[in-house]
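Kindly review this protein for my students:
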Amino acid sequence: MSLLMAPVMGFGWSSPIWSSEFPEVSVAPETLPEWVRDSRRLSQMLGGQSVGDVSDAQVIQRLSTPIEGLDALVIEATISKKDQESQRETFVLYVDTTGRYLMAGLFIDMEQNRNLGQVIERQVRGERADSPAQALRPLEMHGLDAEPIEDPDGSLIVVVDLGPEIGRRNFLRIAALRQSLREEGRAVRALRVIPVSAAHDELSTGAMAMALGYDTLNPGDGYQKLLEYAEKSHAAPWLDKDRLRDDPLLKQAMGLGIFRLDDNSTQALLARLNTLPLVYEVRGNRADSLPVPTDGDEWKKLLLLP
């Protein structure tokens, strides 16, 4: 128990530096098309039944894109939906260099298998957020549930990187403490773990990807694989090189999981994340960042249902 109650701290390894792919262009009002400078007209174009009422729409950045003749306009607007609190959100639209044509929708980079607008939006969010934890959107990321979650409201989300040894050790402490509380008959919160990789260790990156892939094939398996890797590290039997080469199920799991892990890790990098773990509480349709506990008593209080 002394291990479980030891302070869960010491996270502070640095993520790889993210260099902006989309250099910012000055947003002087005279450089923008008239329809962009008209907040009311822009709000009307952005609004709709699926989006909600849009007001006070403003261009905050104009970025060049890899598509010749096309710039991205990063727009902030207030979104109001029925029975929901109004909030500021970010949109990405595209405009040609003449300023005549507006393009909205998905631009997919087929070589990198990613949505250009999503990458831009996440990058800008990371640049403007008060902290990386607030820039991250864990509900948009791929996670592993400790048990099936029927109602996510009030559940916990923990973002981890199992590459460094301290990441594996602290994940095990959190999981073991939660399991011991369950065995005592205590009511614990539902738990989702989101793995990200800072590419410190190729095998750990593969292990986290396979855990996500296994979970896709059979929900629940991924969390157990993640626990096994955290405990045994490179000695986990399913990481044996011969099995990795010959086992079709392992290959399938890797193929499914690697894109999910890449998406998680890209979001973490764009949020300028450099400290883990991060902890969130799900409240309705949002996940609020919580202070990370520094000792076992604080973790116990957080893991138990209020």
